[in-house]
Each structure stands twice: as C-alpha cells, then as structure tokens.
Design a protein that fits this description.
The protein is α/β, with parallel strands linked by helices and 225 residues long. The chain folds into two domains: 30 residues, no CATH class; 182 residues, Ribonuclease H-like superfamily/Ribonuclease H (Nucleotidyltransferase, domain 5, 2-Layer Sandwich). It has seven helices and five strands. A five-stranded mixed beta sheet has the order 3-2-1-4-5. The termini are far apart.
C-alpha cells in the first residue's frame, strides 16, 4: 500500500522500514482467553493464598493431592523417537505411515501425590457431570481413609488441588470437612500445568503407544497394569 501510494518499489519501502526506521514485522500472539477484571482479581487472590501456605505449615507440599483426568485410546501412535531405527550410512530414511488416534477411548480419573492414591474409569456412555463427580470424590475420600495405616492421615489436613473439568467447580459437589480436607481454588482458564500432566500421564501413556486394543476393557486393563 505504501509503495503504490508513493509510487516507489517495494524493496525501497522494505529497506526504509527495516534499516532506517528499525521496524520489524511480528505475527500476532494468540491467547486462549481474555480474562475479565474479576477473573484477574480472583487469580491474584488465589496465588496469595497459596503463597501464604508455607508460613502456616512448612510441610504442606507433602500433603497435596491433585485430581486430574485423561483419555486413553485403543490405538495411540508411536512417537518419532520410538519409531527410530538404526540404519547404515547410505541407507535412506525409513518411512512410516502416520496414524490417527482411534475413536475408541476411555477416560481415566486419577488422584495423585507422590504415587497413585485413587483411580477409576468413567463407564461407557456415562456423562461426567456434577452428580457423577460427586460419587468420584466420595470414592476417593473413602479409599484414601481406608488405605491409611494409621489415624494420622485422618486427623491431619491434606490439600486437594483440582484441575480441568467444569464439574469440579460445581456447587453440587460434596462439602468437605475443613478439619480433614482443604481445597485449592483453581482460577478459571489457568495455564498452570498440573502434576499428573507432567509426572504421571506421559510415563503411563508411553508404554501404551503403538499398541492396539479391540475393546475398552482391554484399554483399562493395560492402563491399570
């Protein structure tokens, strides 16, 4: 547009912009959401609450249990590293067809600290809503208390950080006893990476890549193993 309006070559316009004016052309950065002032304020409040926790209890990190969910597929293609091969100096690069993830899948819900505290699969055809997630949380609390070798775990405060699904922030969820459970408020559209996404799911799914399962039951058995 500048070149046409001034009747000069585009190369001259480009040289003026870059060399004389020191300009550079950048692509726009896409962001997932535009937070409202209320959402930004809630995020600041949440962060301040978490920062204050070490002052009240220096061992609070050992009491955090995170809940998260992930899909496990009947066929999950191998990574490039897994499909690499040793070849000769003059051998051509090996080729492999690119497969898509299968439509047959199952959702795994898991609670995790330094290990797996509780896990269960969403039944086929079951909708994950507030009522269903209430049952999941009840099962988690029962399993967590039943698996304790002493009553210390029942009397101490432990923290449950919840990520991802909207039912987790629904008002229909059970009200925890504040003497036993403290819940983290997870801000809306928070980009924070949950511990299972980093420490658990990649290691779990790496062993399943390249395998083929016929039915959901086979997927669940492999994931559990």
């Amino acid at each position: 547009m500048i070149a046409e309006s001034l009747n000069i070559p585009k190369t001259v316009v480009l040289r003026i912009l870059q060399e004389d004016l020191g300009k550079r052309k950048l692509y726009a950065r896409f962001v997932p959401h535009s937070l409202t002032p209320e959402q930004r304020k809630a995020r600041v409040t949440s962060c301040q609450d978490i920062i204050a926790l070490p002052d009240a209890d220096k061992h609070f990190l050992n009491k955090i249990i995170t809940g998260d969910e992930t899909y496990c597929f009947a066929c999950d293609p191998e990574t490039k590293r897994q499909s690499s091969e040793w070849v000769g100096e003059t051998s051509p690069r090996p080729k492999k067809l690119k497969f898509q993830r299968s439509r047959i899948k199952t959702m795994l819900i898991i609670f995790f600290d330094s290990g797996v505290v509780h896990d269960e699969f969403v039944p086929e055809g079951k909708r994950v809503n507030a009522e269903f997630y209430k049952g999941v949380m009840d099962s988690f609390l029962w399993a967590h208390s039943a698996g304790s070798s002493s009553c210390v775990l029942l009397s101490r405060i432990f923290l449950v950080a919840q990520y991802g699904a909207r039912p987790q922030s629904c008002k229909c969820l059970p009200i925890f006893d504040p003497k036993n459970v403290t819940t983290f408020y997870h801000p809306l559209y928070s980009p924070d990476l949950s511990p299972p996404d980093y420490f658990l799911f990649p290691k779990l799914k790496m062993n399943l890549k390249g395998l083929h399962f016929a039915v959901v039951a086979d997927i669940q058995k492999a994931v559990t193993d």
